[in-house]
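Lab notebook: predicted structure, single chain.

Context: the supervisor wants predicted structures on file for every construct in the current expression panel, including those that have not yet been purified. This is the next one on the list. No modifications to the sequence; it matches the entry in the shared construct table.
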Amino acid sequence: MGLAPQDYEELIRTVHDQYGGMSKAHQQIALFITQNPNDVAVKPLNAIAEACGIHASSFVRFAQSLGYDGFKEMQSLFQKRLSTAAPGFEARVKALESELSAHGQQGSKGFLHDLVLKDIASLQELLSDIDAASLDAAVNILEKADTVYLIGQLRSGPIVEFLRYVLTMLGKRAVLLDAGGGLATHMAKTIRANDALLAVAFRFYANEVVNIVEQAGARQVPVIAITDSTLSPLAKNAAALFSVPERQYSFSRSLAAPMCLAQALTLALASKLQRAHDPRIPIVTQP
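Prediction complete. Output recorded below exactly as produced.
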């Protein structure tokens, strides 16, 4: 067994390199720790295992397979990352958990209360996790593209619908690869190297979206991917990759964080296209 990774970045690279040969349980753990590094840093093993749906002993074996004596040794890398990258996160987690357990509301208002608190946490993580270089790269791709193709299905649909609207209003040619009629795959074959593809997909990834991204990548089409993990099937073909954090939801993924990211991308693009510090989206109707 080789030397265990000595820092968080090396650990993540090692997980990426070994992911294809991992067992299904270890792949599930790999996905969880790359999607939830802050939770891995601050929560006890049993809580992490429960959230992942995998027995705690499997986390120990996962760490040992990477060269560590046990889970605690691997967890220390996540803690070191958090102490330098996002001080104060642990306090926010405790405050969130306290709020969620103490409000005591039931029914519809209780659901609203919980969702708002979790969305606030997701937005805070988005701000700390998304780097400026990736944003700049994505905006440059969008600016240079002759036509921006958009694809996102199921719960990702509203994000690409919004992007089509804003890009069109900014004067960019935007084509939505709509699943309706079964033509998305055929439409994607018309994407050229001077165009761009912006794809949105979260677990469980829509097969058609994954296939279209792979085909576009093989043809050297610039791909911008908004997804939930650097281990997502969209990641390997992405020229600009955004792994969007989320809190644990029992019903469905919230769109607050990815929609906020989509808005930020279009706002930055509008600023470049309009050469303005306070860009505006043209309105369709006058009051």
